Amino acid sequence: MANAWLNHVKKVRSSMPEGTLLKNVLQEAKKTWKKGTGAVASAAKSAKKSLKKVVSKGGAKKSKKRKTSKKSKKRKTSKKSKGKSRRGRK
């Protein structure tokens, strides 16, 4: 099954003169496109409604975010030895 938007673009492109830029075809297709005119869209809407019902009945409460200070934290960096190893020393 092909994408509904692509089918619509093909239909609009066939109605326009040959050699029309894709940009112009997409702009014209956008004007006549009606989003959500298929079985998939109706199924998605019903699923969204049922999800809202489940959440509203006994759903989880929203947790509050902690406010953090805007000051930047300094990074701790380890000091590396400058090429001298301690292995051979006593």
Secondary-structure-derived class: mainly alpha
- Number of helical stretches of at least 4 residues: 3
Which segments are poorly predicted (pLDDT under 50) over 5 or more consecutive residues?
A: none
Number of E strands: 0
Gap from first CA to last CA: 77 Å
Q: What share of residues is helical?
A: 40-55%
Broad shape: flat
User: Strand-and-helix sequence, N→C?
Assistant: HHH
User: What amount of the residues lies in strands?
Assistant: under 5%
Residue-averaged pLDDT: 74
Describe this structure as you would to a colleague:
With 90 residues, the protein is mainly alpha-helical. The chain has a domain at 1-34. The protein is built from three helices and no strands. Helix 1 (4-15) packs across helix 2 (22-32). The model has no long low-confidence stretch (mean pLDDT 74).
Which features characterize this protein?
single chain, 90 residues, mainly alpha, 3 helices
List the helices and strands and how they pair.
Blueprint: H1 4-15, H2 22-32, H3 39-58
Helix pairs in contact: 1-2
Please provide a brief summary of the model.
The protein is mainly α and 90 residues long. The chain has helices at residues 4-15, 22-32, 39-58. Helix 1 crosses helix 2 (22-32).
